[in-house]
Amino acid sequence: MVPPLFLPRIHFHPHCLPLPRLRRPAAIRLSLKPLCSSSSSDSPARTRPPLHGPSLRRGRAPPDHPDPFARAFDLAALRVPAPACAPLERRLRGHLLNWPRVRNVARLPNDQGLLSLGLSLPSPAPRHPASPATAVARREKLAREFNARGFLRFPNLARLSRPSPAARKRRERKGDGGDEEATRERDRDKAYVVEVVGERTEDDDDEWKGLVGEEGFGRGAWRMGPTRLLLLDESYAERRVDDLPEAVKDVLDHETQQDGSSAYELIRCQLTLFYNYWPMNEVLEALLPEGIIIPTGFETVGHIAHLNLRDEHLPYKKLIAQVVLDKNKPKIQTVVNKTDAIQNDYRTMQLEVLAGNDSLRTMVIESGLRFQVDLGAVYWNSRLATERQRLVNDIFRDSDVVCDMFSGVGPLAISAAKKVKYVYANDINPTAVEYLERNMVLNKLERKIEMCLEGS
């Protein structure tokens, strides 16, 4: 037998091992440069305008336009017959304009095909006889068709012949030039408008002929029925025909007739976005000086927007409030700012009305319950709604008796009364107790809540 191999044990001691001597690394100095320069360390740097999509800094301001926030963008569009618009919209999905709040299908004013050229189309004969022209004749017709009992059962039928007050006002204004005022008001409320530009001249080459018809690129005449504009993606605005996507060229080639004419037309158009289109933060970024933090958040209490402006915002508080009011209508009708911290026993806030109406009385809906609130006389905090709902859902049980010692107008007491057995509510502010009583009756929970003033 081969004797086993005995190996000697070797113990390594770390402090006895010959380790290589390391050199101390030289000191490295790093000079950090800010990624974006800003005049204030607290304020975020202004972002660069995006390469695509709508932007106030990227658009072109139309000359002599009354709206200082109007911005124009050049686009290409397909002018197609109205019946073919919906199928083509689904077919060209991904190649059409995809901007927020802008439809990729536009309709030009007075675009009725042959009707715009002064030609009349034969109208089909009416299937039903025409209704009587006068209000008296309509009432007599209703009287013949329905008896007295029928009129009682269908009272709305008796009102069909009565013109509404709004209709009477429109008729009165129509004789005094009211249509022009209504048109100006309607144009003032527009968010954007699409206009056809770029008529073809004789100096242009014939690369569009045979592909878009004899009218050429950008012709306004149309020989068919009503038409629509399919707005193409903004990246196609300056492209030639050969550079267009295959899907768009296939549509044009498929619809080209043997004589070189086409049922579709490729045109250039201009999309103009107005003040009503731009969001609040982008408008404020354009109005406020460089380096000021853009106020984008506020607390909503019914129809009231509650701002907490910084000292740097105070010189522009009226301007900020007006933009907040314009961009949040009709939900927001009043904009206020807290002028001082809460220092009284009733915890009421000192508020300054900056824009809108002066009423601080509002109705708040929270968790399906309605609360009347006077923001200048009682305390209310909408940000505690999640905590109140957590207490009602996770802490309170059906057999509990809850005592709310600082109830205010009753957001927690009334919410708990829908679940628990009974609620005692108390507050030091007499005005808050008055609104608590109103809200109990408003939500039909007065039998489950007992209230009292402090010390009574």
TrEMBL record:
List compositional bias (Basic and acidic residues) regions by residue number.
173-189
Q: Which GO terms describe its biological process?
A: mitochondrial tRNA methylation; tRNA N1-guanine methylation
Q: Does the keyword Lipid metabolism apply?
A: no
Name one cellular component (GO) term. mitochondrion
Catalytic activity field: guanosine(37) in tRNA + S-adenosyl-L-methionine = N(1)-methylguanosine(37) in tRNA + S-adenosyl-L-homocysteine + H(+)
Q: Report the PROSITE patterns cross-referenced here.
A: SAM_MT_TRM5_TYW2
**Keywords for the protein's UniProt record, in alphabetical order:** Cytoplasm, Methyltransferase, S-adenosyl-L-methionine, Transferase, tRNA processing
**All residue ranges annotated as the SAM-dependent methyltransferase TRM5/TYW2-type domain in the record:** 298-456
An example of a Pfam family matching this protein is TRM5-TYW2_MTfase
Keyword hit for Cytoplasm: yes
For bias type Low complexity, the affected ranges are 35-50
**Which Gene Ontology MF annotations are present?**
tRNA (guanine(37)-N1)-methyltransferase activity
Positions of the UniProt region annotated as Disordered: 35-68, 162-189
For this protein, the record's InterPro entries field holds: MeTrfase_TRM5/TYW2, SAM-dependent_MTases_sf, TRM5-TYW2-like_MTfase, TRM5/TYW2-like_N
UniProt lists the family membership as follows: Belongs to the class I-like SAM-binding methyltransferase superfamily. TRM5/TYW2 family.
Instruction: Report what the protein is called.
Output: SAM-dependent methyltransferase TRM5/TYW2-type domain-containing protein
